[in-house]
Design a protein that fits this description.
The complex is a heterodimer. Helix content of chain A is 34%, strand content 26%. Chain A is α+β, with helices and mostly antiparallel strands. The termini of chain A are far apart. In chain B, the strands form six sheets. A seven-stranded mixed sheet of chain B has the order 3-5-1-12-9-10-11, sandwiched between helices. In chain B, α17 (677-696) crosses α18 (749-765). The chains are: A alpha+beta, B alpha+beta. The structure holds flavin-adenine dinucleotide. The site of flavin-adenine dinucleotide has 32 residues of chain A, from β2, α2, α6, α7 and β10.
């Protein structure tokens, strides 16, 4: 658990970071909270020659409240979980961030790092998908926005182009008739998600479901929307029976991972259980 | 001047005096020590679990800038293989021993086996250079499971161990047990697996050696629970050098749990390399290496039969255990699944016929040796699980089955027929009753039934345990008995300095047990001096009398008794000197509460401080008396001590996910006289956490290729505070007759009592699903499968 040698840079701006990335090419890696990258370095699974530490770049920090919440990529989970604007306007994000790893992980790990790394068991991708968050990135070719649905391509692979930096992520502010929830079965050692389900619903005035977005993380190689569940729910009364029936459709067309902690069979069953639990909670919240 | 005697401190919950230093970061651990000219060692480890080494080319590594030297096993052939200090049954049964060498020679036997040593100016360079060593391996067949390893056709690890069998050992009465089982009304059979655990001390292990060519002397700083034993083994067995040529120092040791008792290859190769290159050599494991190389615990597979009558009388117990000891024999490995396991397999019960047979087995895995509880957790888990299995089979309350079979107070000293010294003292039912009362057992079944109707699954689990502390008596453990080849007595020197300050040196080695505090409490009360005026020194073979170290919950019962005996000698000498000072007859002087006085006239007295001053300045001593109050004791106890208690766990199982929540945990322990309740509770808390973790979280898993799947803390689930409830503890006190304080021992009781309480509770919760047994750990998936599969 002794990393190979690397050069270390701590740029003051995103532009400077991008410049360094271009200069060092494949040799270089961004370092944010380090809670995925450093373990990989210590196990020598990854041996980049250059680390570019963006954790102290001012423009990557901060939570701005407005029509939408805009959160800097280098903001830590702990900051998100305790932020009044997040707790008030997008509590599910705090609920999720507050369950990541342990206190040490939450004090170091960052929103941008979690999304860019795209660990199959990471929590936040599920919430990003369910809330249809937008991921702002900046690269040598300029700035662009990646929609949540386009972001997670494969295990540890995202839509980021080489030398692009995640700068901010914007989340909706939930209003009346909207509700969201994150439910998670924790890995006993790492506390990563064995199965994590984020659910968002918007209800009509009569209480029936107007819109639903459900995303599962942990169970398979990447975080995924559950379209069958969503469609079954939309238009329904959003009662227990409708939720249970919709949850039964979750995870049917997914690919699964399995290990000593949870087999594919078990994950498949848990996706349904946690989808139901997340939806019940989301609907209850939407009803106020 | 006659000062008031200080208030008594035995029984007081004093805070541990060792803590402030650790809390503010002033501890001095192995890796804090830096010596001038020191080089850093990194070990190249085998990626294969079993392979022949065809060749090793170190030339690229040697040429790497900053590298001082690179060595392989062939370079170290002058180092003897590490000794095994405890063959099963003292070698009276055949033991096919293969102990590790400093570095492997010719063949590697587990993934992580040490292949080459790189010494460099810093650890990073050494690690880089290790990647530049080219080893040509020829992979061989691998077996990681003890039951499979003894089957015909299994890959063979060592030539001298056909079918990978290290020893076959037994105890008890085979014929009587066969008869009892053959004629029983009820027989229950079960396979009981006690999974492999990785001890995971917070500080990993390591060694720093310095050789001085001018004197030919070595100093070894190492993370050891037993520095004197390390000196003995390294000098007499590993290197064949005179004992005084090595000084061993244990600095602060950050948790041991048994893993740090043993003699490891790094002690040998740092010493050897330091002499070779003429510079101090430091090796400290990283966490992965600790998981891969340092000893693991448990790893038993047992076929068990328990027999009895329909009205709950147990009549027989037969156990056949395969104990996986890993790829080589660690220092005391064979003693654990034999002496410390088979002989206490009947637990707290009077079982008329019992028999245990143990096969020690080699597999392509890391070595297995003592881990907190060492054999007794395996035994208590097995018997307590089988008692519940039996109770379920005959439809009787498990508390009632326990009660009907308990050894009774009048039966002590009790011989269990398994070749153990007699259980010293005990009274098992009050602890059971108190624990049942604390959990509200009488009301629980109704609550359980209500919850089941709502689809919630609650369970209650009992564990009534007994264990063996103070493993030391030469009468049992020494030759020609159980195989240590020596009694594990303990030593203590007590000196009262001219200033009245008391210095205690002990062969015990506190590494988290709070012995500096406990021992000072003992001495303060015995001599009647202020607690603050007693210092306890330990850990350095140069400054302490020979002792066997700290493990097996032995330090209070054995080390503490040695101290008390030394204080008794001091008091006697003080009394004689006081008589001289008071011009009284020795027979008329008594020593009490820190002063010696003439019987009947308490005003004619001398305090211990005055006596110590006189003994030190020494200008007027009785005829023939030597100056100074300085007494040493080597104490070999006549028997072990046998703490006991009942633990009860309450769990809730999530019917949809199988997730287990430990809701309440009650423990009533009897550890004999309590010197410091805060420390005893702390030991119990930590111990219970480890037992609960075995039941619910921890397991060391190898895949079929011998790769450790749980090789990091991301996969090996240790308990954290948030996964445990607040324990509710109480105790009964049944003093041990074995030692003058009446103490039994508390270091391992929590671990020994707990895993089965939790498992019995989980299985109780699953009764509606027809579940009779579940192997540990009760992970969510396992429980879910048991319910839905
Ligand atoms: C013990 C432990 C437990 C954990 N438990 C959980 C858990 O329960 N749930 C969970 O979700 N995660 C968990 N994690 C992972 C943690 O959330 C990591 O922090 C996260 O995966 C990566 O974020 P980071 O800021 O630490 O990124 P780093 O480790 O610094 O970087 C990770 C990767 O992302 C890249 N990167 C970082 N920031 C950016 C950016 N702004 N733009 C582009 N690329 C970037 C880096 O180059 C690197 O490749 C755990 C980690 C540990 C060590």
């Amino acid at each position: 658990m002794i990393p190979a040698a690397f050069e270390y840079f701590a740029p003051g701006s995103v532009a400077e970071a991008i410049g360094l990335l271009e200069q060092h090419g494949d040799e270089a890696k961004l370092l944010a909270g380090g809670h995925s990258l450093l373990p990989a370095l210590k196990l020598r699974l990854s041996q980049p020659g250059v680390l570019i530490d963006i954790s102290r770049v001012a423009e990557l920090h901060g939570i701005e409240a407005g029509d939408r919440l805009s959160i800097g990529a280098a903001t830590t989970y702990a900051a998100i979980a305790s932020d009044p604007a997040v707790l008030g306007g997008c509590a599910v994000l705090a609920e999720c961030a507050g369950q990541i790893g342990d206190i040490q992980v939450r004090n170091r790990g960052t929103l941008g790092g979690a999304l860019a790394h795209a660990d199959p068991a990471a929590d936040l991708p599920a919430v990003v998908l369910a809330l249809d968050a937008a991921i702002a990135v900046q690269g040598p070719a300029g700035a662009r926005s990646i929609s949540a649905d386009d972001m997670f391509v494969e295990m540890l692979t995202t839509a980021l182009e080489p030398n692009e930096v995640v700068t901010r992520v914007t989340f909706p502010v939930l209003g009346a008739g909207e509700g969201a929830s994150y439910a998670k079965l924790k890995h006993p050692a790492s506390r990563y998600a064995i199965v994590g389900v984020a659910a968002y619903v918007r209800l009509h005035a009569d209480g029936s479901v107007a819109a639903a977005r459900v995303a599962v993380t942990g169970a398979g190689p990447r975080a995924e929307r559950q379209h069958a569940t969503e469609s079954a729910l939309v238009g329904s009364a959003g009662d227990a029976a409708a939720i249970a029936a919709a949850a039964e459709l979750a995870g049917e067309s997914m690919e699964y991972l399995g290990d000593i902690h949870a087999s594919e069979t078990y994950r498949r069953a848990m996706v349904k259980v946690y989808t139901r639990r997340a939806l019940e909670q989301a609907v209850a919240r939407a009803r106020g | 001047m006659t000062a008031e005697a200080p208030t008594k401190v035995i029984g007081k919950a004093l805070k541990r005096r060792e803590d402030p230093q650790l809390i503010v970061g002033q501890g001095n651990f192995l890796d804090d020590i830096k010596l001038a000219g020191m080089v850093h060692a990194v070990v190249l480890r085998s990626p294969y679990a079993h392979a022949r080494i065809r060749s090793i080319d170190t030339s690229r590594a040697q040429a790497h800038p900053g590298v001082v030297a690179v060595f392989t096993g062939e370079d170290m052939l002058d180092i003897n293989p590490l000794p095994c200090a405890w063959a099963a049954a003292g070698g009276r049964v055949q033991n096919n021993l293969n102990t590790p060498r400093a570095l492997a020679v010719g063949e590697v036997h587990f993934a992580g086996d040490a292949v080459a040593l790189v010494l460099a100016e810093d650890r990073y360079v050494a690690r880089d250079a290790a990647d530049l060593i080219d080893v040509d391996y020829e992979p061989l067949g691998v077996v990681v499971d003890a039951r499979k390893a003894v089957e015909p056709g299994a890959p063979q690890l060592h030539e001298n161990a056909p079918n990978n069998v290290i020893f076959k050992w037994d105890c008890g009465d085979a014929a009587a047990t066969d008869a009892a089982i053959g004629s029983a009304e009820v027989v229950v059979r079960e396979e009981i697996i006690n999974q492999r655990l990785l001890p995971t001390p917070m500080e990993t292990r390591g060694a720093l050696a310095r050789y001085e060519s001018s004197t030919g002397e070595y100093t070894l700083w190492t993370t050891s629970q037993a520095p004197h034993v390390m000196r003995l083994l390294l000098t007499a067995f590993v290197f064949g050098i005179p004992e005084p040529k090595l000084r061993v120092i244990s600095p602060n040791v950050g948790g041991g749990f048994g893993q740090k008792i043993f003699c490891y290859n790094d002690m040998a190769f740092t010493m050897w390399a330091s002499k070779k290159i003429g510079r101090p050599v430091k090796f400290v494991e990283d966490r992965s290496e600790n998981f891969k190389y340092s000893t693991a615990g448990r790893d038993h597979i047992s076929d068990v039969e328990i027999a009895g009558t329909r009205d709950g009388q147990i009549t027989g117990l037969r156990v056949q255990t395969y104990a996986n000891l890993g790829a080589y024999i660690s220092t005391i490995a064979p003693g654990i699944p034999t002496t410390l396991y088979g002989r206490i397999i009947t637990g707290v019960y009077k079982i008329p016929a019992a028999y245990a047979h143990v096969t020690g087995v080699y597999t392509n895995t890391a070595m297995v040796d003592a881990y907190r509880g060492a054999g007794r957790p395996e035994a208590s888990y097995l018997i307590e699980r089988m008692i519940d299995r039996f109770a379920a089979e005959i439809g009787m309350d498990p508390a009632e089955v326990r009660r009907r079979n308990f050894i009774q107070p009048q039966d002590f000293p009790y011989h269990n027929g398994m070749g153990l010294l007699p259980y010293d003292s005990g009274n098992y039912e009050p602890a059971l009753n108190r624990a049942l009362e604390m959990v509200g057992y009488a009301d629980f079944r109704a609550e359980q039934a209500r919850a089941r109707a709502e689809g919630r699954y609650l369970g209650v689990g009992l564990s009534s345990y007994v264990e063996i502390c103070g493993v030391a008596p030469s009468a049992w453990i020494g030759l020609p008995g159980e195989g240590w080849g020596a009694g594990l007595w303990e030593s203590a020197n007590v000196r009262v300095h001219l200033t009245g300050q008391v210095v205690v040196t002990t062969g015990s080695l506190p590494h988290g047990q709070g012995l500096e505090t406990t021992f000072a409490q003992l001495v303060a009360d015995e001599l009647g001096v202020a607690y603050e005026n007693v210092v306890v020194e330990h850990s350095d073979t140069a400054g302490t009398p020979f002792g066997y170290g700290t493990y097996g919950s032995r330090s209070a019962a054995v080390g503490g008794t040695a101290i008390v005996k030394s204080t008794a000698k001091i008091k006697e000498k003080a009394r004689r000197l006081a008589a001289h000072m008071l011009e009284a007859s020795v027979d008329d002087v008594v020593f009490e509460d820190g002063k010696a006085y003439v019987r009947g006239s308490p005003d004619r007295s001398k305090s211990i401080g005055e006596i110590a001053l006189q003994a030190s300045v020494a200008y007027s001593l009785p005829e023939g008396m030597e100056p100074f109050l300085d007494e040493t004791t080597y104490y070999d106890p006549p028997n072990c001590t046998f703490p006991f208690g009942t633990h009860i766990a309450l769990v809730e199982v999530d019917g949809e996910t199988g997730a287990v929540t430990l809701q309440r945990y009650v423990g009533v322990d009897d550890v004999g006289t309590v010197i410091n309740p805060l420390i005893v509770d702390g030991q119990l808390h930590g111990g219970i956490a480890q037992g609960v973790a075995q039941a619910l979280f921890e397991r060391g898993v190898y895949d079929d290729n011998g790769q450790l799947v749980t090789g990091t803390l991301m996969d090996y689930a240790i308990p954290v505070a948030s996964s445990l409830p607040s324990y509710e503890l109480d105790r009964t006190v049944t003093p041990s007759p074995v030692n003058p304080m009446g103490v039994k021992g508390a270091g391992e009781a929590g671990t020994i009592g707990s895993a089965q309480a939790v498992m019995n509770a989980v299985i109780d919760a699953l009764a509606p699903f027809g579940v009779k047994h579940l192997q540990m750990p009760a992970t969510a998936e396992r429980v879910w499968k048991a319910m839905h599969g």
